[in-house]
Structure formats: C-alpha cells, structure tokens
Design brief:
By secondary structure, the protein is of the alpha/beta class. The protein contains six helices and eight strands; from the N terminus they run βββαββαααβαβαβ. The strands form two sheets. The protein has a five-stranded parallel β-sheet with strand order 5-6-7-3-8, sandwiched between helices.
Length: 191
C-alpha cells in the first residue's frame, strides 16, 4: 500500500462544477475524514477514488484497485438473504467467528434474519461489518454512522477503529463527533 494522491482533480456535471483542482493526500494506514456541506463533492470524490466515475481532469494515484472495500450512502446489501449470508459473500470466516463479529456490533439477533426484516441501523452495521471483513487494504465509507443512536454509534465507531488498523480508511461525514469517535488522523474540508 501507499498514500492515495489526488492531484488537481476537477469534475463537473454539465455547468455544475463539483470539484475544482482538488489536491489532497490520504495517508497510508491512517483514518482520513472528508467533511463539507451537501453538494460539495464528497461522494463524487469517493466515486472517483473507487473508479466508479472519471475525473474531468487531474490524476489519482495509489488506490489499491482490487483490494478496496466500500460502504455507500445506501447499504447495498442482498435484501432477501440473511445478514450472515451477506457477510459470507466477502469473508471466509466460519459461522461461529461471524457470529462473534456480529455480536461485537450488537447484531446477535440479526444473525439468521433476512436483511429486509432488519431495522435501518442494523442494516447499516451489517454493511459496515461486510466492508471491514472483506480482504482489502483500503476502505471507503460514506456516512457510516448515520442513523445510529448515540450508544450504538460509539460502539460502532470503536469497532471500525479497531478493525481498520493497518488499512487506509477514508470516511465521509457531516458530524464533527464522528471525527472524534473514529480518531481521525486527517481532515479534509470541502467547501
């Protein structure tokens, strides 16, 4: 792994300029947070880093394509299968290990339920867990703690911190409290 470098990246949608000559470095194996108002380009930047969109100009280096995991604004889970089956899509851990991981995020009761029957907060935690269990060196998360009550947010942030060690973690958030809970090493504020 190496630092992820964004160099003079610009992106527009028609006449709307979303990113203009953005240059930033996301340090390897650190937690970086991106903050800013709605519509300032946070999610667009993440989509460019993931290779889902192309920048109009500039370059991106150091993204370990093929070894990257993501949590999007929507949970993007397989709704008709259980939470455990969603985790097995990316992890070779056995069911007992997966159950322990789920219980660490207070998801014990969700183990065998179809995802469509889970609450929004439970779905969010399953999506986070799936991203963390995937074999990867870099994880990108778009508003991972949204919709969680305070106590669950604290537990989940601690779990993310613990399980993202030795990985590059890039998190989009609107909430300053998330920076503290995640122990962010770097903050990028987009205007």
């Amino acid at each position: 792994m190496m630092d992820i470098i964004v160099d003079n990246v610009s992106k527009s949608y028609g006449e709307q300029v979303v990113l203009k000559k953005l240059t930033v470095r996301f340090p390897e194996e650190k937690i970086s947070c991106i903050m800013g108002p709605s519509g300032c380009g946070k999610t667009t930047l993440m989509r460019i880093l993931l290779g889902l969109e192309r920048a109009d100009e500039g370059r991106v280096e150091g993204v370990p394509y093929g070894k990257i995991s993501a949590v999007f604004q929507e949970d993007r889970l397989c709704e008709n299968v259980s939470a455990i089956r969603n985790l097995k899509l990316v992890s070779e851990k056995d069911e007992a290990e997966l159950r322990r991981e789920m219980e660490a995020l207070r998801l014990g009761e969700a183990f065998g339920k179809p995802v469509r029957e889970l609450s929004g907060g439970m779905k969010r935690r399953v999506a986070i867990l799936r991203a963390l269990l995937a074999p990867c060196g870099c994880i990108m998360m778009d508003e991972p703690l949204k919709g969680l009550d305070e106590e669950t947010k604290i537990v989940t942030a601690g779990y993310i911190r613990k399980n993202a060690k030795e990985k590059t973690l890039i998190v989009i958030t609107h909430d300053r409290q998330d920076l503290e809970l995640l122990g962010a090493d770097k903050l990028l504020t987009l205007a």
